[in-house]
Amino acid sequence: MTTGPTIFDRALLRRRRARALALGPATFLIDRVAEEMAERLSVVLRRFERAADLDTPADTLRDVLTAGGKVGALERASIVSEAGLEVMVGADGAPFAEASLDLVVSGLALQFVNDLPGALIQIRRALKADGLLLAAMIGGDSLSELREAFAQAESEVEGGISPRVAPFADIRDLGSLLQRAGFALPVVDSDRVVVRYGSPIALMRDLRAMAATNILVERRRAPLGRATLRRMLEIYAQRFADADGRVRATFEIVWLTGWAPHESQQKPLRPGSATRRLADALGTKEISAGEKPDEN
Prior knowledge:
Elements: H1 10-23, H2 28-42, E1 48-54, H3 60-67, E2 71-82, E3 85-90, E4 101-107, H4 116-126, E5 127-138, H5 144-158, H6 171-180, E6 184-197, H7 200-209, H8 226-240, E7 247-259, H9 278-282
Parallel strand pairs: 1-2, 1-4, 4-5
Antiparallel strand pairs: 2-3, 5-7, 6-7
């Protein structure tokens, strides 16, 4: 069996999460995700008795969802590497049994999975019929300001660029991934959050406190040069500062929703099964192919 490329150093991710927790994590994004996820679940007219939280950092999401009454047992789940493959396991270290969960949630974690299609397939397998996946992940437009400033600074000072910000998934691809994994009624939407900082250094401190600094396997191991950092700060301030001198940082939160197929779910009508013409519904005149519209 072949495995895909290893993009992220997940062992380093675990160490940096532990460091962030010890130093005092920055939780404003995960707090926002937890509130939004609870609101989205509140409109689902059912209770989820057995659920799993996949790799969400901190306890905010678990605390909010279990307090809301929509979710019963909420188990911790994580992605681990076994024999070169990434596997979704429970707190006991064993993979979830097929069709064993009513709900899988994940907050700001799936962007660091090396094999996202494989992870979605495993989630789908673990869900019971009519089970729900609801996840939020960092999207491709996140930290565009920081990426641009670093790229320009490295190009000017060092004559080339290195990957310093992770390549996040594009929202246009995620719907297809849900369908390929076997989810029914897939929905992908996004929420853009613009945060203002006193300086780019303050942004970088927040990223460290979110354990969101560079964990790319192909990252440059040499320390960031002072000249490059100084030029990056200048470019960031020149291009992305407001009138009061504070700088902007964009975070795109992409939401994934998908259901394990069940016969009770809505299905598209068969072609040709309509009982009413579209022209009648719109109150307009139907024009046959090749016929020119009346200009009078």
